[in-house]
Design brief:
Blueprint lengths: L12 H4 L3 E3 L5 E5 L2 H4 L12 H6 L21 H10 L4 E5 L2 H4 L9 H16 L3 E7 L5 H4 L8 H17 L5 E6 L1 H11 L9 H25 L4 E13 L4 H16 L2 H6 L20 H5 L5 E14 L9 E3 L19 H13 L4 E6 L17 H19 L3 E8 L18 E3 L6 E3 L1 H12 L1 E3 L1
Parallel strand pairs: 2-3, 2-10, 3-4, 4-5, 5-6, 6-7, 7-9, 9-10
Antiparallel strand pairs: 1-13, 7-8, 11-12
Helix pairs in contact: 8-10, 9-10, 14-15, 15-16
The chain binds beta-D-fucopyranose.
Beta-D-fucopyranose (FCB) binds next to loops.
């Protein structure tokens, strides 16, 4: 097999111009969403309060004081969302299950009315020939569990495994592919280390403790799902970034390697190889509270690895970073590529390089691209059309890079654009629009953007003219 060294750009782009890029037979074309970002109905039908409800209802946390109380109102608009997916010829839909809809307080029996919402969604997807592709946890922890310490408490791992049992027992007859977590690295870092996401804590030791509990929870949930139904395929959607040295020095190169271990492997390696990456100059931090038997409990031989990727990271050697990694990343990407409205650099090779690095370091696992996309605020013109041409360019670039990685030997089974429609973008509120569909947040009305039509043709043709 031919693996390219990370960092190499592969076939020159020009040589591919006007070539027809065809993806493997049966490749899944999808979009991704998350419960809190789209559902609304935050206190309906017995749903419990989540840490995101509490966080957004706390003044000063979110831009303009916006909340996901209504969001895209997807809780009441399954048919509208399905119509968008059909219009885009999608064959896969990644969504998440809101834990507090199933267990309002994070423990106890499952709420049937909450499960019913997801049953209706899943059945509608199956009727439309679209693969339901759920994530058990996309950040909306029941507030009652946060009140008892949240992800820093080992008991939360046991609660999560119980929740996994309940959900899979109820829905495992109609869903074959599952994800456990969405971006464990981001929700722990942003929620417990930096504090700009729920629950808003800022403490290095709590962050490290949370990462370890999440790794334990991941192993436990994996086994819970397999105990319920051994035939189901289970993965997780990891946040990843190409970790590149900011300068030419050896120190920066070493720092970038350590940061790769933190950004891309801190949760993957425990699952697949039963160890933490050896990246802390002072050895494994005590704050992890690693106990006898934990390494075994973290193991989860996943059926596939999900990759969420938006950009690269430029890394410098440093000795005053929060974590004690002696490495620091400045912003999302560098400043050579185009910059999206969120300030993230467009850098398609990041996807190529990360996909090949994981392919070669983890013995060619089955991969799914579980998120990739960009924020541009292009709004409806006088004729009602949304000409978001920069978004089309973005997807062209990243899909071409992904295709190169597949040609070089990566086993990629699907691609999910973030996101089906504009939605509640966490601390940014509704300002950052990542959707293939425009949403009027006053009326809930949805209009497919030009990028959505373009993506629909890619899905229909299983490829495009590059
Ligand atoms: C990812 C999240 C997703 C969305 C995109 C823009 O980190 O998984 O919910 O916010 O970023």
């Amino acid at each position: 097999m031919l693996f390219q060294a990370p960092g190499s750009t592969g076939t020159p782009r020009r040589a591919l111009r006007m070539a027809r890029l065809v993806f493997p037979t049966g490749f899944h074309w999808g979009t991704a969403t998350a419960s809190y970002q789209i559902e609304g109905a935050w206190n309906e039908d017995g749903k419990g309060e989540s840490i995101w409800d509490r966080f957004t209802h706390t003044p000063g946390r979110i831009k303009k004081g916006q909340t996901g109380d209504v969001a895209c109102d997807s809780y009441h608009r399954i048919e509208d969302d399905l119509a968008l997916m059909r219009a885009m010829n999608l064959t896969s839909y990644r969504f998440s299950i809101g834990w507090p809809r199933i267990q309002p307080l994070g423990e106890g029996p499952a709420l049937e009315i909450g499960l019913d919402y997801y049953r209706r969604l899943i059945d509608a997807l199956l009727d439309a020939g679209i693969r339901p592709f759920p994530t058990l946890y996309h950040w909306d922890l029941p507030q009652a569990l946060e009140d008892r310490g949240g992800w820093t408490q080992r008991d939360t791992a046991a609660r999560f495994a119980e929740y996994a049992h309940l959900v899979v027992r109820a829905l495992g007859d109609r869903v074959e592919d599952w994800m456990i977590f969405n971006e464990p690295g981001i929700f722990t870092t942003m929620g417990y280390g930096i504090g700009i996401h729920a629950p808003g804590r800022r403490d290095r030791d709590e962050l490290l403790a949370a990462t370890h509990v999440v790794n334990l929870a991941h192993g436990e949930a994996f086994r819970a799902i397999k105990e319920e139904r051994g035939e189901l395929r289970v993965g997780t959607a990891y946040s990843m970034q190409a970790s590149e040295p900011a300068g030419d020095s050896e120190a920066d190169a070493d720092a970038a390697e350590r940061m790769h271990g933190w950004l891309n492997e801190w949760f993957l390696k425990p699952a697949l190889q039963g160890t933490y990456p050896d990246i802390f100059p002072g050895g494994l931090p005590e704050a992890l509270d690693l106990r006898e038997g934990d390494l075994e409990r973290m193991r989860a031989p996943l059926d596939f690895v999900g990759i969420n990727l938006y950009s690269r990271g430029l890394i410098r050697a440093a000795n005053d970073d929060l974590l004690g990694l002696d490495a620091q990343m400045t912003g999302m990407g560098g400043r050579e590529g185009p910059i999206t409205d969120f300030g993230w650099e467009v850098w398609p090779d990041a996807l190529h390089d990360v996909v090949l690095r994981i392919t070669s370091d983890y013995d060619r696992p089955v991969l799914e691209i579980t998120e990739n996309g960009c924020s541009y605020a292009d709004s409806p013109g006088a004729d009602g059309k949304i000409r978001d041409l920069r978004r089309i360019e973005f997807f062209r670039g990243y899909l071409e890079a992904l295709h190169r990685a597949i040609e070089a030997g990566a086993d990629v089974r699907g691609y999910h654009a973030w996101t089906l429609m504009d939605n509640f973008e966490w601390a940014e509120g509704f300002e950052q629009r990542f959707g293939l569909t425009w949403v009027d947040f006053d009326t809930g009305e949805r209009t497919v953007k030009e990028s959505g039509h373009w993506y629909g043709s890619v899905a229909a043709n299983n490829g495009f003219e590059a």
